[in-house]
Amino acid sequence: MEPAIFAHAAREATANPCAAGERALAPPEVGDETATMQLSDLRIFVEPQQGASYDTLLAVARRAEALGFGAFFRSDHYLVMGDHDGLPGPTDAWVTLAGLARDTDTIRLGTLVSPVTFRSPGLLAISVAQVDQMSGGRVELGLGAGWYEREHEAYGFDFPPTGRRFEMLADQLAIVQGLWSTPVGETFSYRGSAHSVVDSPGLPKPVQQPVPVIVGGGGAVKTPALAARHASEFNVGFRTVEFFGEQRARVQAACDEIGRTTPMLYSAALVTCVGRDEAEYSRRAAAIGREPDELRTNGAAGTVTEVAELIARWHAAGAERLYLQILDLDDLDHLDLIANEVAPLT
Q: How many CB atoms lie within 10 A of CB 74?
């Protein structure tokens, strides 16, 4: 797959969400289209497996924090994608976030998304809770079924079939949230088809109760149902605004079906490349190995006005939060431009 395109969360067997007789859903009616998206609704999202040291990630996170972006998120991958050398090599997502928890002050931190194939549910619950403590309650957990088989082969992770990974995702969500919510002094047990725990003390506890959990993907039935039961946020990554509207409707219908009363937050992820003029935009596109026209078609890309208008369109379609995928991590001026010139126009 394209290294600049991040596919995340649980995918069902078909790539067509309207397959098998599914009826396409019209995008739901959303709020006031004249409402604006704030800078705090924009989150910086990076792909360190493409080649980034901790110091590079820290520089991006600190600049994002100083500028007022809502969060710094990273992918959870161990193998470079596409025709890159990946130097200096991968960094572990939760080790990175632990460091950032101590080296930043206010910005929220998280993964988009952690595959269930990398960590057992107990280990994941402990790691995330500890990083939440280290950050003073600034962590969010994006959790997905995993998809990149080659990295599992490269680093020795088991890669079960799709259906089994989805079972793992359902069990991990139930276990992680069960461990965190079990009162101190009591124990938690759960028996699932892929994972079970017996009489766990459910320690340590995160600062946040609950920790925000993000689920996403393009599946038409299972993914919305799982999100409705477990997620505080549903994310659609690197798809069209029309598909986002359809998937948003499916998730909302799943929430309504189980009588969920807490609101779901809806978000999207977009590869982002902005220039003050066409020359600067083309230079930034070339720096990440993308064609300007292709980027305009598939991402939040173009001049300042173009990108601001596109962000406003996503917001009008019901995206309350956007993850801006930044691929050139040495270009901190890019973040300045987005914060100071794009965000005020959205």
A: 26
Sign of CA dihedral 260, 174, 22, 318: positive
Per-residue confidence at 193, pLDDT binned at 50, 70, 90?
very high
Give the separation between CA 4 and CA 82, rounded to whole angstroms: 9
As a whole number, mean pLDDT of residues 121-142 equals 98
pTM to 2 decimal places: 0.90
CA 47 to centroid of chain Cα atoms: 11
- Please count the CA atoms within 13 angstroms of the CA of 120 that sit on its side-chain side: 7
- Is 39-345 a domain of CATH 1.10.246.130? no
- Average pLDDT rounded to a whole number, residues 85-109: 97
Residue for token pair 């601001």? 308
Domain ranges of the chain: 39-345
